[in-house]
Every structure is written in C-alpha cells, then in structure tokens.
Description:
By secondary structure, this protein is of the alpha+beta class. 39% of the residues lie in helices and 16% in strands. It has helices spanning 35-45, 67-80, 83-88, 109-116, 141-149, 152-159, 162-179, 190-202, 204-207, 213-233, 241-257, 263-278, 290-309, 316-331, 350-360, 432-438, 491-494, 522-525, 529-538; strands at residues 2-4, 19-23, 54-58, 119-122, 125-128, 375-380, 383-388, 408-412, 415-419, 447-449, 469-476, 480-487, 496-505, 511-519, 545-547, 550-551. A 7-stranded antiparallel sheet has the order 1-2-14-13-12-11-3. β8 and β9 form a beta hairpin. α8 (190-202) packs across α11.
Amino acid sequence: MQMASDESKEMRGLAAATAIQSSLDTHHRPMAPGEREQARGSETNHPSVGDDQRHYLTRVDGQTGGFVDGLVGWMRTLGYRSLLYSLRLRGRFPGNLRRAPARLWPGNETEGKAITVGHFAWAGYTQKDHDEPFTDREAPDAFLAYLHSFAWLDHLAAASQGEAFRAVAEPLCRLWLRDFSAVHSLAWRPDITGARIINWCYHAEYMAPTKDLILRSAVVTSIARQCRHLDRSAFRAAPGFPRFTALAGRVFGHLFLSSAGGALDHAEAAFARECLRFIAHDGGTMARHPHEALQSLRLLISLRAAYRQYQRECPADWQLAIDRLVPYVRGLRMGDGTFSRVFGGAPVAAKAIDITLDLAEADGAPLSNGAHSGVQRIAAGQTILIADAGPPPPPHVCAGAHSGTLAIEMSDGDHPLILNCGAGPLGRPLARDLAWMARSTAAHSTLSIDNTNSAQVRSNGSIGQAPRVVSIDRRESDQGTWLDMDHDGYGKRFGLIHRRRLYLSSDGCDLRGEDQLGPLSWRQRGGPPWKQLVHRLRGHAGRRFDIRFHLDP
Length: 553
C-alpha cells in the first residue's frame, strides 16, 4: 500500500487539508484509461446538488424517546394493566381452529439438547434449572424477551419430538399462562407478543393438544386475547423490525383462529402497509441490518406458506416485499456465501441463507446499486466488493447500528480479504466494552479523524450525531466500475468531509482506491455566519487521520 499527502487547493482560507491516496495494488500503477479525466470531472461536479450522476442519501431524524414519550408509555402501560382493559380483551371463544402450519426453519439441535435439561442461553446470559425462569431477577431484558417469545421452541423441536418435547414445553407453557395472563410491560410488548403467537401457532400440536382440553382451551383463549391486544397496540411498537414482527404475529394469530368480523382483513391490510413502509424499493430495511432483512424475508415466506396451506390468497403487497428483499439479501453476500459485516452483520451460516432464498421462490440478481439502502456492490471476475454508502439509521430504529460509513469489504472467490469487525454471534453478544469497540469507526475498513467515530455511539446503544448526507456517484464501463462517495460525519467537529473513490477492473484483478479530506461548502457547513467564520479561522492543520483495512487472518 502506498500513501501520499499534498495540500488541497480547495482549502484556501483554511490551513492544510490532507489528501490521502491509497493503492491496494502491490506496486503503484497509473490510473486506468479515462479514469483521470473522469476523476477531474467528478471533482468539478461533486458539490453540486441535483447532479445527473450523483445521488444523495439523507439521514432522517426521528423520535428519540424523550421524557414525554416515556411518560406517555408509562401511562399507557398503567391503562393496559387496568381491569377495564382486561375486560376489553375478552371475546367469543374461537370455534374453528386451523391446523398448525408446517415449520420451515429448523432450530439448533445443540441448543435444543441444552434446553431439554433446563439450560437456556441467550444474550450472554445462561440460566440453569431455574424454578421461575420467566421472572429471573438477574437475567437481562434481552434474555427474558427471548424466553417470553418462545423462540426457543424451534431449538427444542430440533432435539426432541413427541412426549419428550411436551415434557419440557408444556410445564413452561402452563407456568407462563399462570403468571402472565394479564398484560405485562415486557412479556406483552407488541413485538414479543407477535413472536410468541407465531411460535405457539407453529407448535400448536404440542402447545394446544387435543387430548388435554383444559390446556388447549387456555392456550387458544390466550392467543385470542393477545391478538386483540395487538389489534390495539401493534402500531405502537418501536418502528422497524419490532413493529413488523408485531403486525406479522397479529396476522398469524387471526389466521390460525379463523377470526370473524373482518379482524383478519384489517390485520392483512395493516401488515401490507407496513411492508411498504419498512422495506424500501431496493429491498433495504430501516435498520440496514443483514440479519434483520433475512428474518423479515423468513416471516413473509412463512406467512405465504401458511396462506397456501389454508388455501387463502396471499396479498400482492406481501409478494412484492419478498421480490424486493431477495435481491437485497443476495447483494449482501460475500464470495463464501456469508453476509458482509460492513453493516454490522452477525455471523449467519451460508446454508441458512441458501435455504431461505430457495424457499423465497423469487428471481432477481444481487443488488448492486442500492439507491435507497446505500448498499454498493461490485462483482467482477471472482472478486466481490461491498461498500457502505449510506448514513446510519435514525436512533429510534436500530439500537445496534455501526459507525462505519464508506467502509468496504472484499473477497476473492470464497476467500475473504478485507473485513470489518461486525457483531457477535446472534444471541451471544460481545461484552459491553468489546461490543462498543466493534461498532466504532476504527473497527471498520474506512478512514477516521483523530481516532473519533464518524457517528456517535451512545451509551444506550443508539447512534446520535452521525453523517447526515452521503452522496454516491457510480459509473460503469467495459474497463471496470468507478465509485465516488463522500459523507459529512466529520463536518460539525472538524469542518471536513471524507471522500472515498474506488475503481475495480472488469476482470476483478485491479482494485484502486483514494481517500480525501476536503472542506465543506458553506451550505453543507450550516449554522449562523459567526459560527461558519470560526470554522474558517480555526484551521485543521495537524489533525491525525487513520485509514484502516482489516485483513482476514
């Protein structure tokens, strides 16, 4: 790698800005034919708004969960716990139960065997032989949410069947029905309730057995009450995947119960609207997280399979969502079939992704130019390169987003070359300090200034001040593909933008890159005139920068 610095002519009144050119070749070589002229043209057109070649992704500020939101939520919880609300959840006992839908997603047999002996492990916490597992005071909320969702039933089913399954699941089900028949702030949280309904429906053969009419009646009555609760609360779930899960569970419940009075029709329409809101035109989800996209696709495939089993027509908007998600999921895969960690993805086995895509029954080449999601993918020869060309999600959408704007990841065949740290395995998060470090800019293959993050990683896990505008100019020719990207994440602190340009030849054997630090335009800088003058007079000479490329061992 070769690096050089020179004084930027654009800085004028500022002290020197640093321009960094990095070549990923072993030896320095001149730019590709026509590349230098193209670079000059892009420099001229770079700041212009509305350029034909360049498009902009802007981070949308959303609700941040302040004091007022917390107070309203607390008052709403009190209302849910009232006797009046409990009476509103009553209704006619469902008389026409459908047969449990066929399970599509196998669980983990190893985890299932541990559950059979009373050992539950999730979110870095292990519970062993606990008499009251759902009310464990030492367990973190993430672990309790996992227990209350009954997502562990799939793992249990992978390790045991018949009486062996029932011997473990039935006592826990009775325990939950005894202690949580009324609305509870965590156990009845909309997304957890939706996931629990789905898991109970899939395992209804054991959770609501026909031989035990008392247990069956209690389970079915509880599902009906939870569905009525979601009718009133699902749209209040946290935006993003939690709300998507809550609305999907609402549909599953009403479908399984053969609900009358138009309840299923209303649930279908609400979920269809959420699909259009949650999934962008290029398939990207709100949080831009690979595992979230995979789980969303699985929920949609499961719903479609259930509708086919019950011979009910699947809404067209659901199929449209599947058709959008499939190219997006494919576009996030590296040469070995796993997800890129540019966006903070957790390790997911390539086989699990293959199974999901096969069951999706949807065509579509891998997404290469994500105009809405910010995914930029170049596949040439055996080389695959993925870049994060979008701003982080709003703080209320994803609490685990990473600060890696303009980071890249690269593989040659099934061999990873340039990586990012990513997240810990699903359900086994890293230690708090290590997780914070893995989300930092330094943990990504990109540039950082003064060892600071381009996006603020808050103590509660959300992303605060972050790149607001990311611009992308992608051009393709017979010689190769050119990416020209920049972000303003360091604008307010240092008055600088980070610009990254990449070129990959059509045969995938020649990758070249250039990182630049340049001044913000007056419009980009924003703020009152006196503050802009301070930015100009302060100067930025001596600022340290680091360009990191994390290489596969």
